[in-house]
Amino acid sequence: MRNPTLLTPLLSQSPTRDFCPHTPLNGENARTPILERPPHQSRVPSYIPDYDSIATKDNSSATFKPDRYRQSKGSWALRLAGLIGPMTSIKNFAGSKHKDKQFPFDQLTSTDWVHDSIVDAGRIKELKSGKGIESHLQIIFDKSQAWILCAVVGILTAFISVGVNMFEAPLFDWKFGLCANGYLFSEKKCCPIQAHCDDWKSWSTIIHSSSLSDVSVQFLAYMCITVLFAITACLLTLTTKTALPNTFPTFAPDVNLTLNPQLRSASYVGPLDPTIDQSGAPIEAMPYYAAAGSGIVEVRVRLSGFIFHGLLGFKTLAVKTLALILSVSSGLSLGKEGPFVHIAACVGNIVCGTFSKYDNDRKRREFLGAIASVGVAVTFGAPMSGILFGLEEISHFLPPETLFRTFFCCISSALTLKFLDQYGTQRIAMFEVRYYYGWEIFELFPFIVIGILGGATGAIFTKSFRVWNSSVRPSFLRNPLLEVFLVASVTGLVSFWNPFTKLPVSKLLYHLASPCDNTLSDDLGICPQTIDGLKSIIPVLAIAFLVKGLLTVITFSIKVPLGIYIPSMAIGSLEGRIIGHAMQLVVLRFPESPIFKVCAANTSRLTCITPGAYAFVAAGTTLCGVTRLSVTLTVILLELSGSLEHVLPISFAIIVAKWTADAIEPLSIYISDLSQELDRLHDESQGFCLMTNVPTNEVEMGLGFSPANLATYVDPVFLSTLQPAPITVDIRSPTNLVHECFMKLGPRYICFSREGDFAGMIHRTSFVTQIRKLAKKKQQ
């Protein structure tokens, strides 16, 4: 039951004049109405008998804890609640500030790196103030905590990766049949020597039907299992549903600081209430599913300083792992590389709660930035690529110490994979291709063409995704399960009839990128030995390219765990294989040309052209066009192929692909996805006038958790909570400088001065909102 009397004296105090950030207060007794707002919007405390009952951990799942408040016993906000009570002194509170445990509050609120740095510096100072052997041991243990946790995260993530691969392969093969020796045996494990054997039973041999042909039985089994796995994955994902902050009455001091005071009357209902729009109609909640999608965007947002409750909790980890197995096994056009970045971040967030040192949000974010990239290392089996991925994609700020921890974490995971030997080949890579022949100088031109086409394909894919997401997907926002059902049905219906599209995407990529070897069987027919065979395989590859591209566009946004890396590479490899075979036709068409004469005279193969190398390069260029990664992709392809001979064409093609993609579509798929998700958030231009550098999140939470037996009158003096030296820049500073301050220093807000006098302030979320508005105007 709420106590309506606690803040009544506060709310009744009116300012002597309208108060706005650029209007100074007149009068000796003028006061800043930082807490004045109408009763329907005011936060009044609930009766909570004991602080212990509300203690939670950072990023605990919002599904378990529906309450929007997140903090822990002994945190700074709770001591603030004690400060405004009658029994606590300001001196005691100020003296305990270095013991602060900074915990997040509302969804998508931002944390302050500067404040967290001060708090951590106080902790270190107190740690070093001790003397004796015990104090030195404590310092050594404090420094070793990060290394211990990095090793633990690398090992645990590797075990999870092996477990996912162990169950994914047999479940995927269930669409084609079962192994008589064990239901959890994949076809490859069931028939290790031959491609087909008697132990593997197809559905047409298990289910006998006089009215249906064998192909029809296989097709129905394929369809049913595809839809069943996809729907089950979606149902699991939907259990991580939570709501984004437009559904909560909350402080909004950082968006609209000049609201007219007359709108704050008790009878007014409108923009001040974030659950009601301008017309008075209730705003519908925006659902958010922590386990859905790739998770790379959300991890990046978390590392940039914004709070996502439930994003990195244990429930999200368990649900995403199980749902990922089912979604990949269903045969949908998706991968698991992006979700493993999210899974690694979840593992890191859970294990770092072991040490109180990481209750500090700055230290926690540094650690998460170091270990998130281990997801790429374990899925590709490429530890060096994981390190570069952390630099290029995940962390906007990665100091050398954190970079070295990333290196240690990726190596720990790689050693674990080597020890587990999940593929039985004593290798850790997802697959390896070896090219035994080099490339001719005239092939540089087709590699440039591959770069242009790959970059254009990736950019067009991003544009197509944005069109689909804005025009079709809104119809399924209320029923994501129906969207998954339809996408899975279309995928099964279209993929079954093409030998390339019904393969797992990783296996398809491996077959397309592999060189032709006469000693191995060619079940897919991608190594023709005649001109007629070349002409017949190109249309099949072209159809598979179009089908795979369209399926990936409609699949990327459904509510299951999914990644875009391997599907994009598979699309590009189909395109590259087509170009490779086309080059073979050109060489065979002009065998006497001075350029192609030596190549056409090759007797060991059809020509000197290696179509698999073209497919491999095109896989990297297409993924570059989708994600805009460059150095990371080059190293990934190098680690997968082990071919130093092809480093130059791979690197050059990726450079051309990035230039082409940037010219067609400035945004990568992740930035585009984030931009559209932000567009779904309702305008948060509701709030009350604020002119103070009191950390309002802490003030709000302190007042919200005040027990009901506090004094009926509270004097709003927060002297000890004021930040005496906020980050300040000149009001004439360019926007780029303000952006650099937010990115590198990490403050919650920045103040502006004009010739030494205060001129205004801007919050981080306000800055992001304004930049996005300017970007939209520029695009128009």
From TrEMBL:
It is found in: Membrane. CDD domains: ClC_3_like. It is a multi-pass membrane protein. Pfam families: Voltage_CLC. Keywords: Chloride, Ion transport, Membrane, Transmembrane, Transmembrane helix, Transport. The chain crosses the membrane at residues 146-167, 219-238, 306-326, 338-355, 367-391, 403-420, 441-461, 481-500, 537-558. This is Uncharacterized protein. It comes from the Eukaryota. One of its GO terms (cellular component) is plasma membrane. It comes from Blumeria hordei (Barley powdery mildew). Its main location: membrane. One of its GO terms (molecular function) is voltage-gated chloride channel activity.
